[in-house]
């Protein structure tokens, strides 16, 4: 089974909306406007590109990233890898042609089936709504979180408020940086039925 990794820039109060400056959010660009940049705090981003063998995105994140990321040197390792977009509305005509092979998935069942295929880790960038749905469905295996020392208040959250059973996590890597950022890598603990 392939590992599904959710990676996110997240505020201390759980907001993931518009970290890079996407329009429409009052605190857009909070990752670089409000916290001193320390390159070592972002080393995990390079590691993710080396570890991942495919990328999973929701429609909104795909439409935001696909016009920009294919030509960005910072994301060069993602360009050739297969991409999967979960959407009920996109068609093949909506996909860009310069960002590697892209497949549209129509449901969480399609994502579950993808996880059963051969291959390495699949990484999810952005895609707040998709992350919440995947988490609630028990499909995410690992979280890579860069926690920013900010309280943003309103905004899209990484985790849903759905009433559900406790899901345990195991901290497998962590580091705190001089600028207040914290790296937290958690594996989702699967209950073993005996």
Automatic annotation (TrEMBL):
Its domain of life reads: Bacteria
Sections of the chain in a coiled coil: none
Bacterial bifunctional deaminase-reductase C-terminal domain: residues covered: 2-182
Share an example GO biological-process annotation for this protein: riboflavin biosynthetic process
Which GO molecular function terms does the record list? 5-amino-6-(5-phosphoribosylamino)uracil reductase activity
Q: Which InterPro entries match?
A: DHFR-like_dom_sf, RibDG_C, Riboflavin_Biosynth_HTPR
Gene3D superfamilies (alphabetical): Dihydrofolate Reductase, subunit A (3.40.430.10)
Full protein name: Dihydrofolate reductase
